[in-house]
Fold this sequence. Notes:
Largest sheet: 5 strands, antiparallel
Radius of gyration: 34 Å
CATH architecture of the largest domain: Sandwich
Helix content: 10-25%
Number of helices: 3
Order of helices and strands: HHEEEEEEEEEEEHEEEEE
Strand content: 35-45%
Shape: elongated
Number of domains: 2
Amino acid sequence: MATTKRTSNIRTFAKLFRDLSDSQRKEMERALSDLENSEEITNLNSTLEFLRRKQNFSMPVPQLVTNNTSKGAVISWEAIKDQRAGAYEVEVSTQANFSTSTKVMTFGTNVILEGLSATTYVRVRAVRTGGTTGPFSDTAVVTPFLFTIVSRTEEAFYFKLTNSTSFTVLGGSGSTFDYEPIRPGPEGFSMVFGFVNMYADPEVAIRGTPDVTIKIIETTNLGESIRWLSTASDHFGAYSIGPFCIQHPETGNVEYRLEVQDSNPPNPFYVSEILWCHLNSVELGSQETTP
């Protein structure tokens, strides 16, 4: 049976326009050439030919190894023992039955998946130079790690310490720093940091007394604890808070606050005052998706 080869006249169609100048004809030929190339890539015959490729189920099957990364994975395999198999077809889908998928050809033995937001399924088969394909590998299931970053901040200005009690300046119950963690338990953390600029009682500079204290207190369902503590060391001072990490509780909210106290006897002429302060936290939540 004689075979017929598909020919196309799209590329030479511009020659039928005799009134075109040479430059116009060349430009039209270029445009029609691009059209023909696009048609050859996307036409139904090419697609059906791709699907009708011969399969040889005696060819070796790639054995996949999956290494999960942040929102992705690296899928690798060893080259199969078939001298005529020089390429591999990788099929990626979010459907376990590959009803809709993306196919990628590679001459290597690994593929990197990035930017995944859901469970993804991958399978690979070898392809010989003549187009014959082997059987697909077992399906590799990629469950990406999804990260959420939450930033919180509060600040205050000109806060006077009018007596010797401890004042909550920032945070506390019902504030921004009272929240349910994204990832509770020992694997969840919030990084806390801040800054305090204050005018302290002159006693701290003249006598070197540690009576003006700045501290971060954490409260969970397990109780209270001081997570960071410093004392004012000068009449006018600026003090960095942290950074340090607060571990999330197994259940319930985590809450922390900035407390400042001048335990010296009240002095109406020298009232300790926070000129400006701010407190920040960054929470990194990591959760695996579920198939």
